[in-house]
Amino acid sequence: MPLLTPDSADSLPMPALEAEVAIVGGGPAGLMAAELLSAAGHAVHLFDAMPTLGRKFLLAGIGGLNLTHAEPFDSFVSRYGARAVQCRFWLERLRPQDIRDWASGLGIETFVGSSQRVFPTDMKAAPLLRAWLLRLRHPATGVAVTFHMRQRWTGACLRSGEQWLLAFESAAGLQWVKARAVLFALGGGSWARLGSDGAWTASLQTLGASVLPLQPANCGFEVAVKGRPGWSDYFSQRHAGQPLKNVALRCSDSLGQEFSRKGEFVLSASGIEGSLVYAASALLRDEIARSGSASLLLDLRPDLAPEKVQTLLARPRGGKSLTNCLRAWLGLSPAAIALLHELLEREQLNDPVRLAAAIKSLPLTLVAPRPLDEAISSAGGVALESLTPQLMLQDSPGLFCAGEMLDWEAPTGGYLLTACLASGKVAGEGVQDYLRQAGVRATVASDR
Predict the structure, then answer these.
(1) CA-to-CA distance for 138 and 141, rounded, in angstroms?
(2) Which terminus has fewer CB within 10 Å in the chain: N or C?
(3) 354-391 pLDDT per residue, tens
């Protein structure tokens, strides 16, 4: 449905539901805002298009719910790249330790892993979400949150005096809602089947938001090898899905930005993916957009000096195959050895000096990020410049945004969830302040 205009206000049916605060989206940001507002005594109605809440949250916890990260705060904030200054404002309102304390209040204890990532002791997302929803429905103080499931916002949003009119599609037909304040927490554009489909972009633009195109973040990439797209069929069929562990990745872009880190990633059917690749994905994605491709260098044995690798490869093979020597002398995995055969020419493989150089600095060309819907998260969205510091749309007082639909990005490791929760708290506080000020304005008007 197209966005309604003030000229059509007289023709609207009376809304069936009056809400002090309407929250659209039941992910972490929306739920955190709902918790803050309901605890403060505000009547919150939360709407979500899916049949259950927190679906992407649950998916993120399948391999162990990474709640946040325990590194020093300044280092933590730096992970938000170009938006670090703006995200710091949110994170100072809900720091990583605050999230651990909040989880503990729900009966979920946490621990810090060897990588400084923070997890629930049972590693699961479902118990935390169940406890959270139980508290929202039955709070010790404040007003219970009312949930409306299978209610998809149509994009209709109309100012009516000091309130907003929203329309939702449901099995029972069109549902109109009148709210004093509205918080959109609609997610980004990845994993559409879980509700984050980015369909809101045009509607938010009509409401005065500047919306940057959604792009994949924390994503895999397509490769080009020897001028052709993708791996060879032979390599893909035998090695797709295999990890490369304890390697180092280095890359730089045409603007002089650099990335270097040790870790692991996975060979996919047509490229690369996994945690080490995700950490560099913003730089690689943007460089591909600027230049048409991006290059990275892999160190397959970062714990060995180049001279040591060259010395080992200079040994007489004594009739052994190159594959056996690479496995025995350098401890390379079958996937790493196959990657060398895939990327190097025969002359390089047979030259110990050139092979040693390649093992320490193996070039790989990336030509495209994987599609947005496959990405762990998305970049782009509502530009922070079109919002107040409390995340209210500057051109639409009473409308707020939070979570992944905002223009920021961060690597995996607890940073995504932390900022979503923190932005939800900031937006919730903004709604609270807006309602307070609106009440003051109404009082002053009535006294005149």
Answers:
(1) 9
(2) C
(3) 999 999 999 999 999 999 999 999 999 999 999 999 99
> Is residue 406 exposed (0-12), middle (13-18) or buried (19+ Cβ within 10 Å)?
buried
| Gyration radius of the chain's alpha carbons | 26
Residue 201 per-residue DSSP state = H
User: For residues 270 and 276, what is the distance between their CA atoms, to the nearest angstrom?
Assistant: 17
Contacts of 119 (CB under 8 A, 6+ apart): 64, 65, 66, 67, 110, 111, 113
Question: How many whole angstroms separate alpha carbon 157 and alpha carbon 429?
Answer: 22
Q: How far apart are CA 178 and CA 169, in angstroms?
A: 15
Spell out a b/e string for 160-184, using b for 16 or more CB atoms within 10 Å of the CB, else e: eeebbbbbbbeeeeebbbbbbbbbb
Cα distance between residue 172 and residue 196, in whole Å? 23
Query: How many CA atoms are closer than 13 Å to the CA of 439, on its beta-carbon side?
Result: 8
Write down the H helix ranges in 166-258: 201-206, 233-239
Distance CA 258, CA 280 (A): 9
CA–CA gap between residue 64 and residue 386 (Å, rounded): 36
Q: Are the C-beta atoms of 337 and 326 separated by less than 8 Å?
A: yes
Q: Determine contact, residues 10/33, Cβ cutoff 8 Å.
A: no
Q: Quote the pLDDT of residue 438.
A: 81
**pLDDT, tens digit (0-9, with 9 covering 90-100), for 89-115:** 999 999 999 999 999 999 999 999 999
What is the pTM for the complete model shown? 0.91
pLDDT single digits (tens) 304-339: 999 999 999 999 988 899 999 999 999 999 999 999
Q: Which of 37-41, 192-196, 220-224, 387-391 has the lowest mean pLDDT?
A: 192-196
Q: From the centroid of its chain, how far is CA 395?
A: 26
Determine the pLDDT at residue 7.
Answer: 47
Which pair of tokens denotes residue 354?
């050139």
Cβ–Cβ under 8 Å, residues 375 and 190: yes
